[in-house]
């Protein structure tokens, strides 16, 4: 039989990889058989990693505003005739979407989707004047991929917090989930900062393979060694911690596997690309929320490859159809499940990009445009303040890098309220909310989500 030292050396790698993937305090496992009694609600965060050029996703169509856009974007400008029209006006301007975003257009015009314009991480209310005077705290690593992805995920851009918005959101709703604690935060993209909570962890599931087993656990020798360790009353502290974590990982996997085996078979057709596969898996998980004993959940998925310093138009023409299709298919599946009003999906990205071209593509910016979709969305209108795309706009810090007119906190506050966080608890979810409540950069989104 494999000796204990060799077992620990070989097996610990398997357990560590599992616990790293789940990012959980395993003591939080509860009874998976408990059924949540509250009305179900969930949010799906889609990270467009790399910095999506969202000023080519949402584009002004009105003559003057389009001409300004065209002048600033030059070789990056989309044709005015190709834009998919959005109903109505926003701040006196008509808008359209990138021609690949037909599903988003249909949802917007049906009142089930919107975009939050020129939104981005801020530490406190910020103007061009206080930036120039250097009297304001700015997000750490502004224009940096890693820092700005972290700022979006944590909503604490002045420091590298150990918890994220999604994790704190579920922390603030402790009575909502009575079943498996890990089921409150499920990732389709492995470890992330968004779902890291102080009291709750997250569980990673593969879009294609589903629940992943412990490496080597299908080996009889490994199993016998593990059973021997579990039965050893003289095990060391390290061995005891290891076996408890490994057993918890196995138990959690069993609960998720059992729940997924009861998932609704969807008639909605999904694409076979990785993003559509992830959205299909989320829909299946949503369908078994009662089996998992949860009434509040967050889901996280990354769709990468948006750092388009070259061939911006060509790469967007290739990638945006997959994004639009995956989001659209997911909404159809939620309607099939009768849960469209209970699930809200939104996009985040490192940053927006420069309006001006580098001769090949666009570069790192700041404010951008976020999509929000779901039955609870009061769509058919845009939210926030879309910047005039002229050189002398004081929001333009250089080359069309826009100072956000809406703070990330404002968008997250609206999501938090919809999920059921009490007003007095908002600061536990959004530590900087006191800085923005009542300010221009914290206002304008109230009522975006209802029900």
The value of Rg in angstroms is 23 Å
Q: How many strands in all?
A: 12
Helical/strand content category: alpha/beta
What is the average per-residue confidence, as pLDDT, rounded to a whole number?
89
N/C terminus separation: 60 Å
Q: Give the fraction of residues assigned to helices.
A: 25-40%
Low-pLDDT parts are 1-37
Strand-residue fraction? 5-15%
Main beta sheet: 9 strands, mixed
Give the ordered list of helices and strands: HEEHEEHEHHHEEHHHHEHEEEEHHH
Count of individual helical segments:
14
**Which word captures the global form?**
globular
Oligomer: single chain
Task: Provide a quick synopsis of the model.
With 451 residues, the protein is an alpha/beta fold.
How would you characterize the overall build of this protein?
The chain is an alpha/beta fold. It is 35% helix and 12% strand. The protein contains 14 helices and twelve strands. It has helices at residues 4-22, 63-73, 102-109, 128-132, 145-154, 165-171, 220-231, 237-260, 274-287, 289-292, 312-337, 408-419, 426-429, 433-436; strands spanning 41-49, 58-60, 84-85, 95-97, 113-120, 185-187, 203-204, 296-304, 343-349, 368-373, 383-384, 406-407. The chain is globular.
